[in-house]
Amino acid sequence: MGTKTTCRRLIKAPASQMLVVACIFMLLVESSAGSKARHFKWDVEYVFWSPDCIENVVMGINGQFPGPTIRAKAGDTVVIDLTNKLHTEGVVIHWHGIRQFGSPWADGTASISQCVINPGETFTYRFKVDKAGTYFYHGHYGMQRSAGLYGSLVVDVEDGRKEPFHYDGEFNLLLSDWWHESVHHQEVGLSSNPLRWIGEPQTLLINGRGQYNCSLAARYSNSSSSQCQLRGSEHCAPEILHVLPNKIYRLRIASTTALASLNLAIGNHKMVVVEADGNYVTPFAVDDLDIYSGESYSVLITTNQDPSNNYWLSAGVRGREPKTPQGLSVLNYRPNSASKLPASSPPTTPAWNDYAHSKSFSNKILALMGSPKPPKNYDRRITLLNTQNKINGYTKWAINNVSLTLPPTPYLGSIKYGLRHAFQQNSPPESFSNDYDVMKQPVNPNTTTGNGVYILAMNTTVDIILQNANALTANVSEIHPWHLHGHDFWVLGYGEGKFDPKKDEKKLNLKNPPLRNTAVIFPYGWTALRFVADNPGAWAFHCHIEPHLHMGMGVVFAEGIQHLTKIPQEAIACGLTGKMLMTANHN
Amino acid sequence: MGTKTTCRRLIKAPASQMLVVACIFMLLVESSAGSKARHFKWDVEYVFWSPDCIENVVMGINGQFPGPTIRAKAGDTVVIDLTNKLHTEGVVIHWHGIRQFGSPWADGTASISQCVINPGETFTYRFKVDKAGTYFYHGHYGMQRSAGLYGSLVVDVEDGRKEPFHYDGEFNLLLSDWWHESVHHQEVGLSSNPLRWIGEPQTLLINGRGQYNCSLAARYSNSSSSQCQLRGSEHCAPEILHVLPNKIYRLRIASTTALASLNLAIGNHKMVVVEADGNYVTPFAVDDLDIYSGESYSVLITTNQDPSNNYWLSAGVRGREPKTPQGLSVLNYRPNSASKLPASSPPTTPAWNDYAHSKSFSNKILALMGSPKPPKNYDRRITLLNTQNKINGYTKWAINNVSLTLPPTPYLGSIKYGLRHAFQQNSPPESFSNDYDVMKQPVNPNTTTGNGVYILAMNTTVDIILQNANALTANVSEIHPWHLHGHDFWVLGYGEGKFDPKKDEKKLNLKNPPLRNTAVIFPYGWTALRFVADNPGAWAFHCHIEPHLHMGMGVVFAEGIQHLTKIPQEAIACGLTGKMLMTANHN
């Protein structure tokens, strides 16, 4: 596609010389900028793997877990021919953080941006990575992310450009959590009455590697855990970060956990945060970093500690009472042996419910000077109340009392072609009742399912107030990291209790709010976001905790779909759009 | 569909009075025959269930396992609106033994007769049950049958007709085998190099009920198994057959095992076999009955034993060294308590490798006088060598050295529309090398995958010689029950060693061979079948052992597809047929 294809067509077709000249010029520009298409051929299939030294079935790509890392330069086009080699399951892959300007059908969300790729079929994802940063990709159908379908996507700056910070080397750390029970089993439990919750993860993984029922750091603890016996070649052998003393390293850290909010720290080393979700931030130093599912960060570390030692890198659970041992990795100062255990025990994770610590960290994240600023005013404000509810006895999560159940026909096609029976045509509620007490359990916990869409006017500025509340159990309000597809948003602020426009509006940060694609709501709090609906497509906005989304915790935005001239047939060749395309020739 | 719909259309359309009169007449005939449409609304979804007292995830229908029993009368039209409520898996259901005359798109075979039904979608199966008998239904995608997707389908004789035997009551027994490991896990093992075999089943189930790790009959045995403690209301509580003394009962017995060949016996009671696979046979009495996966039988028992006792009904493994305890059920002579244990231990299953016993049983099965006779001559003979092979180190089963891998586009549509890229256009081999030694391991064990089709000329008579051989291991040749879709075949005979036309042809039974849809090949033997290719459609013919089919042990026949005037779009709205229907308006 792109310039080359268009030009080839133009050159073949009767065209004015001017056009041909323009084309040649465009081709030159394209190649002079150094951007190119990067092709990948991937097979998705289950493999036996031992992420935490316990063998299990994992959803892999090309026989690997995690999937291969994609590395590209800003401006490149990434092309992935994805073949589904599963036996009975459909599959899609979402490119988390990539905005998919002009390619909303490549966003990889089942029921929203495309039909699932059925077994034996190949779908080509083709999209531009327009912005340098730390991203990742993952399954976005059922709970296939939890099944292991994920990997890293790193976009470097264009040739000739520089990052606004210096580093001598870099490492890529993809964090996840792991259960021994299959996701199929988990899904049945989540859809059962009474609910069977998935429980806490058995293991935390760093680049798909963790240890179950033993500890790499057992020698420091008084606990009963035994020292892990690793031969070094196992799937579960820890990631080792080999560094030289007195250098600066960039750690790219992303979390694709199904559930766990994490805190990451490195023994003795401060971390300077420089990037969040593919956007530069004003650098700030921390001892530890909170990272929620769906987020990514770059931090710089300086290897200025005693070079005769190695140091632990540790990830532990926040926001829920931790029942899962820390995930560990080793910062190995060369020429020490990588297997030399660090002199001190791994850094301790801050208390799981020390929300002041978490909020303090979140509030430090501010845009780097020169970053795009938010419009001063919003055109539409949507307030989204997050509650846990019941429907016919089944436990659900709901937004403004509607629990999302996705339709079989993807919105992108059904909106484009005005298929009114494909989903509920009324817009979901813009807000919730004024007298709702977010500090108490829902008085009437019953809710409804729904699949309506928030249709956003093209190029308008939308404010979202994410409002947290008490869950079904008294005195419980959970953390939810909300992720927006197709856009970055500015995080205008976090607050306590119910958002009060009169009081809270003026506290919002319109000066240097960070651009992100994921933001958390703290227990009993609110988070204010602003974005411009400038990307024609149908976009999920949802809690990135996989079982929460499975239980209905999401909404769908759509804008400017009428501006899309041609949606590839293969993206919408199912359900009611498939039927429509078959009964009338729409080519 | 059928007469009513056609008539409605005719009556609406400008039509001659003659036609209208004819229609009214046909409607009268239809209703006077008492045949009707029987509607079912089914949801397929995973449920927690304890088939053998151990909780697991089972593929159920409308929250039940096994699925609901369909009961209809010969001539009825069965209509099932099947909704897929699974989260990420497609689904189809095959109506085992129903020939689907005029409705080949309702045969329920993924990649052959239809596209899979994707999550959230509904597909309507509509087909005529034209012949009274004992049938069943089951998933036919991946290994979803093993996951529990099955149930019974019983067709009674038309009103005013009688069965050619008398009975006072009847029971329906659906036999299956059960593993604790999920089928997803099993599938990965079967697709791995080296092969990880699924092993023997943990439990045998009768109507979805069995007991793991305890025995209903422990009190009789010297073994270490403990007596099962059942409260009677569990999923795994045994099926009780409540009978009155001195009556005749019909037991409808069908086997949908994934692997196990079974032998069924009832303490002290002889069984008179009267039906096999929906066809009447010359009655014969046996003490025990061999039943292979894919087969069904009706037997008559007379409750003429000591009425103060109850009696065990027992199913045990044949053909493989049994590592699975017998499945048990109780014949409860009323008014004895159902929980009164029988006076003697359950009947002993004949030695697993007593093939003489098995062959003797198979050879007793002969058509009832008056049954359709086979054509005297065949038009085409296809000899199918069954071997275990390797492909790039992966263990497969192959037929004439081709291991079947199904294409994503169903044959029914791709053949109809001449889509030559949908599958290999060359016909698979008609036979195998003359000098192949079926008694030895394959000299060159390597084989190829393939998805070619045997195109049969319409209304020709086809002979199939199923030829067994040595597997990859020396001195091993396994039992394979082959099942044909869309037709019954006559079983002309069984023989030892390699089929030799000169010697063996004259031994074939053309006088009263039984009509069946499933027939076994014994170790190192051959089985000769004959059928008339009289049913336009694409039809699977395969080993009914689920992991064997998964490993490639099947072929596809197709005949008369050009005679099909309209294949419902929803059956072929995927893959290359879907694409074709979208690029050209074929309505």
TrEMBL record, chains A, B:
UniProt subcellular location: Secreted
InterPro entries hit by this protein: Cu-oxidase-like_N, Cu-oxidase_2nd, Cu-oxidase_C, Cu-oxidase_fam, Cu_oxidase_CS, Cu_oxidase_Cu_BS, Cupredoxin, CuRO_1_AAO
Subunit structure: Dimer.
Pfam families associated with the record: Cu-oxidase, Cu-oxidase_2, Cu-oxidase_3
Similarity comment text for this entry: Belongs to the multicopper oxidase family.
GO molecular function, one term: copper ion binding
A GO cellular-component term linked to this record: plasmodesma
Signal peptide: none
Reaction catalyzed: 4 L-ascorbate + O2 = 4 monodehydro-L-ascorbate radical + 2 H2O
Annotated EC: 1.10.3.3
GO BP term, example: response to virus
PROSITE patterns: MULTICOPPER_OXIDASE1, MULTICOPPER_OXIDASE2, PROKAR_LIPOPROTEIN
Entry annotated with the keyword tRNA-binding: no
Major location (coarse): secreted
Source taxonomy: Eukaryota, Viridiplantae, Streptophyta, Embryophyta, Tracheophyta
UniProt protein name: L-ascorbate oxidase
Keyword Mitochondrion found: no
Keywords for the protein's UniProt record, in alphabetical order: Copper, Disulfide bond, Glycoprotein, Metal-binding, Oxidoreductase, Repeat, Secreted
Top-level class of the enzyme under EC nomenclature: oxidoreductase
Function: May be involved in a redox system involving ascorbic acid.
Occurrences of domain Plastocyanin-like (ranges): 44-157, 171-335, 440-560
Cofactor: Cu cation
